[in-house]
């Protein structure tokens, strides 16, 4: 076959294989036998081997798994992937509805199944799949493009040449999970606890061929840039995604009110067991994008959506022992050691007992049969004991008077139920503090997991967080399962963490009562560690989100000589001590045109994403809202602006195009 014939045949094979793949994996209606599909695939692979220049990124042959990676590259999401707030009963759903209607009036909702998998972001340019990433911390994920290509329900090329960012859930069907664990059992390998862990583990394999062998699937559930495409609602976006060739979940419903939502949600309590994949609840979203924008979001979750979690499954097992652990703040936490039991899809051997009062109130004894459930289908906890099953051999449990790690006397602080070790040199607190410092929401040092930290601490290589920045390759290579390549990658990750913005360091230091959100607020307001360390209680409490307890804790922390010594040591190793994000609105340039104005963005901007434009406006003191009203000062209209532009014209509101906007912000 000459090259011209080969080109024509490859194009035809692309068309046929994409069609057959779509019919089988998306429509579930195959039109040809598997053998015919395999024959055509082998013909394509042979032609691509003969003419390598004909192998394209969207070729169906690319699904088998490409070359293994050295490491995953970090990806910043164009729009944040926020997590959802939870509802656990009908009352929670009605409270959510009440809050929504108070803000925006009557609404329609879209109800969807909450697939128990791994959230992913998919980017297409001119119809071609160019990048896929994990959710990560919601702002930054990992590039898993090659692994996602192995999912046959994911289109490598769309039916229209559009540029879109799509959100979805990659998952492992129940049948694939059973086959995988059976294979692992036969090879003597550790079994996956549940399909979600199996899916996540498969997509984070550096070798895409492993992911290709796991038979993963994908449902898409969101279009990040829908409004730029002239789409006004979530239900329309889902229909459009289906038209583009994506697999959307058919088990969804548009509901006119919360009563219809509750009826639909409750109908799935029993039906979920019949599905070929795991779900752990339902997602309820306000349908209108305009209303979604009006409702906005908190730092963690959108106000226009909520996840209803199914009631936790409860099982009975035997409590064998109670183990004690010391956290980074010195709190001593009891944990039940159980006879292994399956709960909500996973095998559970440990469960939370919270504190001494909880054990006493429940009258929990060693040897008791206990009822166990997963709180929110995630964290195992003991619900109650079954005293009728006692034999007389059960033993009451007494909390210790001294720290199980360092032997110091335990204390119970005022208004606290927890016993606490207050020895600042307690090894457990230091170890847990190190684990917190390197965690994802803090300094995010990849490769420094709990086991590595434990080894470093045991070998005396680190005594505090500053010691992490003195580690050498030779020291790391002496650790168990740490080769030269792993040691190099870890040192690179430690070095990269020096460039983190101030809020990550603040959270990582573990100042009591200062969570990730508070750390971001403090970093925005004070901008440098030096300014924050000198802040008075009054200055801190002048910030709306900072209360007296947190202010006291911050002042107390920076009054400690050892805290200042640690910060100075970190500074000497090159750790950044300044905030790198957008300035707080109340610190904005009050001389800017946008200061104090209410602005609406509509249509598609060419030079900036909507998120970037919003950030620029807020940096300059403006407020961006989702709907046009008599209180709107300015509308910035891009291409294909719709009803918002019309309303602005009717209300005689000032309107700028993108060029005028760029001119103003570049002054």
Automatic annotation (TrEMBL):
One Gene Ontology term of the biological-process aspect is: DNA replication
For this protein, the record's CDD domains field holds: BRCT_DNA_ligase_like (cd17748), LIGANc (cd00114)
| Residues binding Zn(2+) | 403, 406, 421, 426
What InterPro entries does the entry give? Answer: BRCT_dom, BRCT_dom_sf, DisA/LigA_HHH, DNA_ligase, DNA_ligase_AS, DNA_ligase_CS, DNAligase_adenylation, DNAligase_N
Q: Give the GO molecular function terms.
A: DNA binding; DNA ligase (NAD+) activity; metal ion binding
Task: Cite a single Pfam family from the UniProt record.
Answer: BRCT
| Residues reported to bind NAD(+) | 34-38, 83-84, 112, 135, 169, 285, 309
Q: Which top-rank group of organisms is this from?
A: Bacteria
Give the matching PROSITE patterns: BRCT, DNA_LIGASE_N1, DNA_LIGASE_N2
Q: Which reaction does it catalyse?
A: NAD(+) + (deoxyribonucleotide)n-3'-hydroxyl + 5'-phospho-(deoxyribonucleotide)m = (deoxyribonucleotide)n+m + AMP + beta-nicotinamide D-nucleotide
Q: Where is the BRCT domain?
A: 589-667
List the cofactors: Mg(2+); Mn(2+)
Keyword vocabulary terms for this entry: DNA damage, DNA repair, DNA replication, Ligase, Magnesium, Manganese, Metal-binding, NAD, Zinc
One cellular component (GO) term of this entry: cytosol
Q: What does this protein do?
A: DNA ligase that catalyzes the formation of phosphodiester linkages between 5'-phosphoryl and 3'-hydroxyl groups in double-stranded DNA using NAD as a coenzyme and as the energy source for the reaction. It is essential for DNA replication and repair of damaged DNA.
Question: What name does UniProt use for this protein?
Answer: DNA ligase
Origin organism of this chain? [Anoxybacillus] calidus
């Amino acid at each position: 076959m000459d090259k011209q014939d080969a080109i024509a045949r490859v194009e035809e094979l692309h068309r046929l294989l994409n069609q057959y793949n779509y019919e089988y994996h998306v429509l579930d209606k195959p039109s040809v036998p598997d053998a015919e599909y395999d024959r055509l695939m082998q013909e394509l692979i042979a032609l691509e081997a003969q003419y390598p220049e004909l192998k394209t990124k969207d070729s169906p042959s690319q699904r088998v798994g490409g070359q293994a990676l050295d490491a995953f590259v970090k990806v910043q999401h164009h729009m944040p992937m926020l997590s959802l707030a939870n509802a656990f009963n009908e009352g929670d759903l009605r409270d959510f509805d009440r809050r929504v209607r108070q803000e925006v009036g009557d609404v329609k909702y879209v109800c969807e199944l909450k697939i128990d998998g791994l959230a992913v972001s998919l980017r297409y340019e001119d119809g071609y799949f160019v990048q896929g990433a994990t959710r990560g911390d919601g702002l930054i994920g990992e590039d898993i493009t090659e692994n996602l290509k192995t999912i046959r329900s994911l289109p490598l090329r769309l039916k229209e040449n559009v540029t879109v960012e799509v959100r979805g859930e990659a998952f492992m069907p129940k049948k694939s999970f059973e086959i995988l664990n059976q294979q692992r059992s036969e090879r003597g390998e550790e079994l996956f606890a549940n399909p979600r862990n199996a899916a996540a583990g498969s997509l984070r394999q550096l070798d895409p061929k492993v992911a290709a062998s796991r038979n993963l699937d994908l449902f898409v559930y969101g279009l990040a840039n829908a409004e730029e495409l002239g789409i006004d609602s979530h239900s329309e976006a889902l229909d459009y995604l289906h038209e583009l060739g994506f697999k959307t979940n058919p088990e969804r419903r548009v509901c006119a009110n919360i009563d219809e939502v509750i009826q639909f949600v409750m109908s799935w309590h029993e039906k979920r067991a019949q599905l070929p994949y795991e779900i752990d609840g339902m997602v309820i979203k306000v349908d209108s994008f305009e209303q979604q924008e009006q409702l906005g979001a908190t730092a963690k979750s959108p106000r226009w959506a909520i996840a209803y979690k199914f009631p936790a499954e409860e099982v009975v097992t035997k409590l064998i022992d109670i183990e004690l652990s010391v956290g980074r703040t010195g709190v001593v936490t009891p944990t039940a050691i159980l006879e292994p039991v399956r709960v909500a899809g996973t095998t559970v051997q440990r469960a939370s007992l919270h504190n001494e009062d909880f054990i006493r109130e429940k009258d929990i004894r060693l040897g008791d049969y206990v009822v166990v459930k997963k709180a929110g289908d995630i964290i195992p906890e003991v619900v109650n004991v079954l005293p009728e099953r006692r034999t007389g051999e059960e033993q009451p449990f007494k909390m210790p008077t001294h720290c199980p790690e360092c032997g110091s006397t335990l204390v119970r602080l005022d208004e606290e139920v927890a016993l606490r070790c207050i020895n600042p040199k307690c090894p457990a607190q230091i170890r847990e503090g190190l684990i917190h410092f390197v965690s994802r929401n803090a300094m995010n040092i990849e490769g420094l997991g709990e086991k590595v930290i434990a080894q470093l601490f045991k070998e005396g290589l680190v005594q505090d967080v500053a010691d992490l920045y003195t580690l050498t390759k030779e020291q790391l290579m002496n650790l168990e399962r740490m080769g030269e390549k792993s040691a190099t990658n870890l040192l690179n990750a430690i070095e990269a963490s020096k460039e983190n913005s101030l809020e990550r360091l603040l959270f990582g230091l573990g100042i009591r009562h200062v969570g990730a959100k508070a750390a971001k607020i403090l970093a925005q307001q004070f901008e440098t560690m030096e300014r924050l360390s000198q802040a008075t209680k009054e200055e801190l409490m002048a910030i709306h989100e900072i209360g007296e307890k947190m202010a006291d804790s911050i002042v107390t922390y920076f009054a400690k000589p050892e805290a200042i010594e640690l910060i100075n040591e970190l500074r000497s190793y090159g750790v950044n001590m300044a905030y790198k994000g957008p300035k707080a609105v109340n610190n904005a340039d009050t001389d800017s045109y946008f200061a104090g104005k209410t602005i609406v963005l509509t249509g598609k901007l060419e030079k900036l994403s909507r998120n970037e434009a919003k950030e620029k406006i807020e940096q300059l003191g403006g407020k961006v809202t989702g709907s046009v009203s008599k209180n709107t000062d300015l509308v910035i209209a891009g291409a294909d602006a719709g009803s918002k532009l019309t309303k602005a014209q009717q209300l005689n509101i000032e309107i700028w195009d993108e060029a005028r906007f760029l001119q103003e912000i570049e002054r």
